[in-house]
Design a protein that fits this description.
5-stranded mixed barrel; two-stranded antiparallel sheet; Rossmann fold; about 290 residues; alpha/beta; disordered N terminus
Length: about 290
């Protein structure tokens, strides 16, 4: 079957060879460097409804994804689609204002290409944020969750295929996907700011359909506290490259099987935006003190 792209979606996503993927990464980095020489120290991925953090960045430059070779085009509402370079609390950062998902029709190599590019541009650590559904019955919509581990239920892995030896080993260790030191730092910062911060396990789900009651029961039984359709591939690739990761989610809807109510993207985005100021303050404090 031929590869077809329509409205930014690969209907038949290819598996890139290591040579092709490495070349695409180099081309994207070169394209960025024609626009800015800024070297970030921290990469930040902003999830659904969480793009306003860029307002706190002293912006040096921004580059649209459409100007970068190999970068997909976001198709989800609230994902603007640009790299923002600048200073956050005195720390040089690059923020992805918009991310990509498996359910958009992209391969996980395409989904995680930007993380490879952030690393190649100089980012030494990665901060990921997301909107997620809460499955822990003691938690509620609007709670912030510090991700301490994850379960990959995407049915895929971004490292499948030839290994990129220049970035990391064939079999990267995943005993600590979310850095213990960064998590401790985030907990201290949250306490100082008076922000409540849960700790739990994130389940990566392919989507785009939300889960059924039976699926929520299964995922909760597996040990999941929250569920979402992003983050896991980015974290796997970051860890493959040796980048420490901090992950924080906003619970935007309550996924309790016996009291499940219909939810849509509008409500999810609205809830995320309500809590976004606290998430912004927390990430800004953590990044400032790195």
């Amino acid at each position: 079957m031929s590869r077809t792209r329509k409205a930014g979606v690969n209907l038949d996503p290819p598996v890139m060879t290591s040579t092709t993927l490495s070349g695409t990464i180099r081309d994207a980095v070169a394209a960025v460097r024609t626009r800015t020489s800024f070297v970030p120290r921290v990469g930040i991925v902003l999830g659904t409804g969480l793009g306003a953090l860029v307002d706190e960045i002293e912006i040096e430059a921004s580059v649209a994804y459409s100007a970068l070779p190999g970068f997909p085009v976001p198709t989800v509402e609230s994902h603007s689609g640009r790299l923002v370079f600048g200073s956050l609390g005195g720390t040089p950062v690059v923020a992805m204002q918009g991310r990509f998902h498996l359910y958009e029709g992209y391969s996980l190599q395409e989904v995680t290409l930007p993380i490879r590019v952030l690393k190649s541009l100089g980012a030494e650590a990665l901060v990921v944020s997301n909107a997620c559904g809460g499955m822990n019955p003691e938690w509620h919509a609007g709670d912030l969750v510090l991700i301490c581990d994850h379960i990959n239920m995407l049915g895929d892995n971004p490292l499948i295929g030839p290994n990129l030896d220049e970035f990391g080993p064939r079999f990267p260790d995943m005993s600590e996907p979310y850095d213990v030191g960064l998590r401790a730092h985030a907990l201290t910062a949250a306490d100082e700011l008076g922000i409540g911060l849960r700790q739990g396990v994130y389940v990566g789900w392919s989507g785009p359909a939300l889960e059924t009651r039976a699926e929520y029961r299964m995922l909760r039984a597996f040990g999941g506290d929250v569920v979402g359709m992003s983050t896991v591939p980015e974290v796997i690739v970051a860890r493959h490259m040796g980048m420490p990761v901090l992950g924080i989610g906003i619970i935007t809807d309550e996924c309790f099987p016996d009291a499940l109510e219909p939810v849509d993207l509008t409500k999810i985005i609205a809830t995320a935006m309500t809590v976004e100021p606290d998430l912004t303050r927390l990430i800004a404090r953590v990044v400032k003190e790195l």
